[in-house]
Write a structure and sequence with these properties.
With 255 residues, the chain is α/β, with parallel strands linked by helices. It is built from 10 helices and 10 strands. The chain is globular. It starts with a strand and ends with a helix. The model has no long low-confidence stretch (mean pLDDT 94).
Length: 255
């Protein structure tokens, strides 16, 4: 059983209790991972990995302290997974709801012999997105490659190798964490989803990530240009990913 890491701010005790209760209902153990409080970071800590130079090139507004803290929290989880003994781990943020049996979802992932790096187990604000390709894992779940990887970080499965690649390629970051994962070709990983999503985002909770601070300094022309570039590259690399995935499926069935 992979370790489930729950990212939770020390001050968010109600969220911790709710998360623990929801996981206990399915007899699921977890390890709490204290989240990084962005507003409490010193300048040295804040800019240890966040780069204003990278931000200017990669994104259309400066990240808020909370967004930087969120990114550092996920890097902390990747570090645990990369150095752990399990082949993959699961990262949960503390504003989730369990839509389906998470144990069954984990077993479906464990049973596949098809190589994978990152599997999204939820979508930001429970949104949907067009699908480029899908493959049934069992009678409950299928692996899906979306035409653009889902955003959001409420629930994600990530292998040891992918966690290490994420750490290596985000030593200096300039985008929000979930956005950076969408640029999967820069990270050397492939992003898929498990559907139906076993986890949803609990929209009753107010986000602890206040990005309004950075959004005051929006760069609208930069945003349009970045969106065009991302779309072109995303179309190309998703096609490459689908072709590779189909080859891996064929190899699996031939064995």
């Amino acid at each position: 059983m992979p370790i489930i890491y729950l990212i939770n701010l020390d001050k968010c005790t109600e969220r911790l209790e709710q998360s623990a209760s929801r996981l206990a209902q399915q007899n699921i153990d977890f390890e709490r991972l204290p989240a990084t409080l962005g507003s409490a970071l010193s300048d040295e800590e804040k800019f240890a990995h966040y780069s204003k130079g990278a931000n200017q090139k990669q994104y259309y507004y400066e990240l808020s302290a909370a967004q930087i803290g969120c990114y550092l929290s996920h890097r902390k989880a990747w570090q645990r997974i990369a150095t752990g003994s399990e082949p993959f781990g699961i990262v949960l943020e503390d504003d989730f709801i369990l839509n389906h049996d998470l144990n069954s979802a984990i077993k479906a992932i464990e049973s596949t012999t098809i190589p994978w790096d990152i599997i999204k187990l939820s979508a930001y604000a429970n949104r949907s997105r067009p699908i480029a390709y899908s493959h049934a894992l069992d009678d409950k779940f299928e692996i899906v490659i979306h035409k653009k990887p889902m955003s959001g970080g409420a629930a994600t499965a990530i292998t040891k190798e992918a966690a290490q690649r994420m750490l290596d390629t985000t030593q200096r970051f300039g985008r929000p964490c979930d956005t950076d994962i969408q640029y999967f070709w820069e990270r050397g990983v492939e992003v898929m989803s498990l559907m139906p999503f076993p986890v949803a985002q609990d929209l009753r909770y107010e986000s602890t990530i206040n990005s309004s601070e950075g959004k005051k300094n929006r760069r609208p022309i930069r945003r349009v240009w970045l969106q065009i570039k991302q779309h072109i590259k995303n179309v190309y690399y998703v096609k490459q990913q689908v072709a590779k995935f189909k080859r891996n499926i064929n190899k699996t069935y031939k064995k």
